[in-house]
Amino acid sequence: MKITDIKVYPVWVGSRNQLLVKIETDEGIYGWGEAGLSFRELAVAGAVRHYREWLIGRDPMQRGALWQEMYRSQYFEGGRVLTAAISAIDIALHDIVGKALNVPIYQLLGGKQRDYVPCFATTGAHGDRLIEDVKLLLAEGWNVIRTVPSHPQRMSGSPMNVATQQARRGPQPGDTTWEPRDSIGPTAADLVRVREELGGDFVLGIDYHHRLNVAETASFCRRMPSGTLDFIEEPIRDETPEAYEALRRMVDIPFAIGEEFSSKWAFVPYIERGITDFVRIDISNVGGFTEAMKVAGWAEAHYIDLMPHNPLGPICTAATVHLAAAVANFSWLEVRVSPTEQLGFYDETIFPVQLKLEGAHFPVPTDPGLGVEVDEAYVARQEFKFAEAPHLRKRDGSYTNW
Predict the structure, then answer these.
(1) Which residue of 39, 112, 216, 323 is surrounded by the most CB atoms within 10 Å?
(2) Is 162's pLDDT higher than 70?
(3) What is the rounded CA–CA span in Å between residue 326 and residue 292?
(4) Pairwise CA distance, residues 45 & 240, whole Å
(5) Where are the domains of the chain?
(6) Which residues contact 49 (CB under 8 A, 6 or more apart)?
(7) CA-CA distance, 112 to 328, in Å (whole number)?
(8) Which residues are CB-contacts of 130 (< 8 A; sequence separation ≥ 6)?
(9) How far apart are CA 350 and CA 402, in angstroms?
(10) What is the pLDDT of residues 330-387, one digit of tens each?
(11) Which residues pair with 177 in a beta bridge?
């Protein structure tokens, strides 16, 4: 079997772009993959097209060797753009191999270790509505719930289209204002109230989206009784592991870190030095199945569970379900569809065949390969829509993290 073509489709799905990659072979078997690095899809598409130039004619069954060649064939190896491209290609190659052997992908990874993959839901609500959202989720069988920071001046979470982007110059008022310390008090009060009113028989966490610094995170955590939160996700940026080590000495809430990591090497200090308690691996950014399985085994040796990042669409979701099915150390999968969140990422017009959520979990699939099909004619007709995540500024005009 030989690769005959690699096609790249950056396509708008719901409220953001998804970067889909299709690999075709001379035996008529094809595979689909998805790259991460949201809002920089064109950069990743360029990297995929570069790899295409020498992947055509190669044997897709040799996916491990092809991974090494893609990673090691340039002096400036690695980096988020290149590994996002490698991730999509690697996922698509596994889809091809699974179909060729007539087995689900998890059978290529060691076989099934669980019958279903538990998920967690996200609510963006605050105050009274947060209480109602958590009640709704608990009633619907979701016992792992993630929240987001409150803020006196709410920002818009919607990507900026071209017209909006062109209209924004200089310091922006209103929905682009984010003052990190202003979020601490109301967010902590919300979470304490959730625990007081709804009890401790469910997992409660928060994604701070690296919007705080070390001192702000410590202040936030100390405003809540011990045991209020079961995890805090990405409170600060991850470039400096020593900063997280300093923070670990100040707080006792488990950390969930790793969604931005683009290789096993990025996980080295966080796993080896006991900095993270949940591995937030993203299969569409870290290097696909080939790299993700190595990180999973490494985490298992340190008694750390995977809690995968999954903000994308049905392809990334299916790939992560296969990964979750094949590893022993797994907690919960992020999924962006629930009674409190409908972002349109799982559009059945675009993805007529996809894994189906049952309550708060995905049954482990049985179809060969990935188990996802794409309406290629539809995505091929679409024009790329430029989008950008919000650019956040403090009140003094300085930029802060989105």
Answers:
(1) 323
(2) no
(3) 11
(4) 29
(5) 110-155+173-366
(6) 6, 8
(7) 10
(8) 123, 147, 190, 193, 194
(9) 29
(10) 999 999 999 999 899 999 999 999 999 999 999 999 999 999 999 999 999 999 999 9
(11) 393
Cα distance between residue 67 and residue 46, in whole Å? 17
Q: Are 155 and 182 in contact, with CB atoms under 8 Å apart?
A: no
Q: How far is CA 140 from CA 201, 214, 310, in A?
A: 15, 36, 21
Task: Express each pLDDT in 117-155 by its tens digit.
Answer: 999 999 999 999 999 999 999 999 999 999 999 987 655
- φ/ψ region of 117 (left if φ > 0, alpha if ψ in -120 to 50, else beta) reads beta
Determine the Cα–Cα distance for residues 168 and 128; give it in Å rounded to an integer: 33
Strand 337-338 with 341-342, pairing = antiparallel
Question: Tokens in use for 228?
Answer: 């209020």
Helix axes 41-55, 80-101, angle to 10 degrees: 50
Mean pLDDT of all residues belonging to the chain? 93
Give the Cα separation of 92 and 373 in Å (integer): 12
CATH for 110-155+173-366 is 3.20.20.120
